[in-house]
Amino acid sequence: MPDAETIRYRAADKGVPAAVDLLDQTRLPGEVSRLVCTELSELHDAIVRLVVRGAPAIGIAAAYGVTLARADASATPQQVRQSYRDAIDYLATSRPTAVNLFWALDRMRGLVDSVRDEAISELPGQLAAEAARIHEEDRVMCREMGRHGAELLRGCETVLTHCNAGSLATSAYGTALAPIYYLHEHGHSLQVFADETRPLLQGARLTAWELSQAGVPVTVCTDSMAGGLMRRGMVDAVIVGADRIAACGDVANKIGTYPLAVLARYHSIPFFVVAPTNTFDRELESGELIPIEQRDEAEVRHASGHVSGPMTVPQQAAVINPAFDVTPAELVTAIVTEQGVIEKPSAAKIQQHFAGNA
Predict the structure, then answer these.
(1) Is 66 in a helix, a strand, or coil?
(2) What pLDDT score does 20 carry?
(3) Which GO biological-process labels does this protein carry (predicted)?
């Protein structure tokens, strides 16, 4: 895995404010730099701009971000609680699709709501500790997903992945890349095709960078090449992460995932999804109910994904830019969580998976 940590945290101390220190993924692979956020607005902007991205990492960053809220020294316990509640509500507006964001913020809200008036001075420390627990839990979950997923890939030599679902998208190790890292550490290095992942090139910029850093063989292909590679017998499996999974097993992931699942089914190639249990939204019956983030058209209209880059779409043409699409459960061979493998996922199997690991 790459040495650079995705998220670091500095607790407030002796007048020095708390800070969330992020590896700036907008600058990779050309520059390895960090962005230190000491204000809520800075962290909110960092999530929106994809300085930090990937569902688990967003949740971790937001949990730490709650600690950046500040209340006046003369504030009442209720006012202190409200300042944190406002911070949670604000951070929840940063990105609508990744359910891990809301899961982490709900944990922080539960702590804010439960603290007694006489213990309000302890709340900042308790919140920092809870965020650290979320961070550490993700590390453990990623390792377990790697172990379980490795069993599905042992017979493979070449896999294809989309977007970035590795160390950069989590605390460490990743979701979809976790089995690849696990096998690499145990002497079985898979050949990885990394989809470029238009329009912001997370596969080309991020997945290829971190796999290269870890010594895993990786080849970047444009999104439109995937079907041709499958037809030529060059792909043994497709493995992706997820930003939200409905109760029935429908999967929301980076735009372009659904056509990969269709192509994989046509070519009789297994299609695996790797995500922690906190990515499941069991209140949503189907993927049709998952909110899909619509991002700035500049990401498509300009080569660099920013208005400063060369224009590649004429101004007169309209642009559509959904960040995610939904893959129906029927196209998913298996979902891997930290608790095990759900083969041919369905509402009943997912319910059983959760009940069996309660």
Answers:
(1) helix
(2) 98
(3) L-methionine salvage from methylthioadenosine
* Helical ranges in the chain per DSSP H: 40-48, 55-66, 77-91, 99-114, 123-153, 178-185, 202, 208-214, 226-231, 257-266, 298-301, 347-356
CA distances from 125 to 101, 122, 253 (A): 21, 6, 34
* 106-157 pLDDT, tens digit each: 999 999 999 999 999 999 999 999 999 999 999 999 999 999 999 999 999 9
Cβ neighbours of residue 321 under 8 Å, at least 6 residues apart?
Answer: 199, 294, 295, 296, 297, 299, 300
CA–CA dist 57, 31 (Å, integer): 20
What per-residue confidence (pLDDT) applies to 358?
63
The pLDDT of residue 3 is 59
- Cite the annotated binding site by residue number: 53-55, 95, 202, 253-254
Domain ranges of the chain: 7-138, 145-356
Whether pTM > 0.90 for this model: the answer is yes
Active site residue 243: yes
Q: Residue 233: left (phi > 0), alpha (psi -120 to 50), or beta?
A: left
| Residue list, annotated binding site for substrate | 53-55, 95, 202, 253-254
Tokens standing for residue 267: 């070519």
Token pair of 300 as six digits: 């498509």
Burial class (CB in 10 A: 0-12, 13-18, 19+), 30: exposed
Residue 90 has pLDDT above 90, yes or no: yes
Pairing of strands 340-343, 334-337: antiparallel
The topology (CATH level 3) of 145-356 is: Rossmann fold (3.40.50)
Q: Which of 243, 250, 281, 325 is catalytic?
A: 243
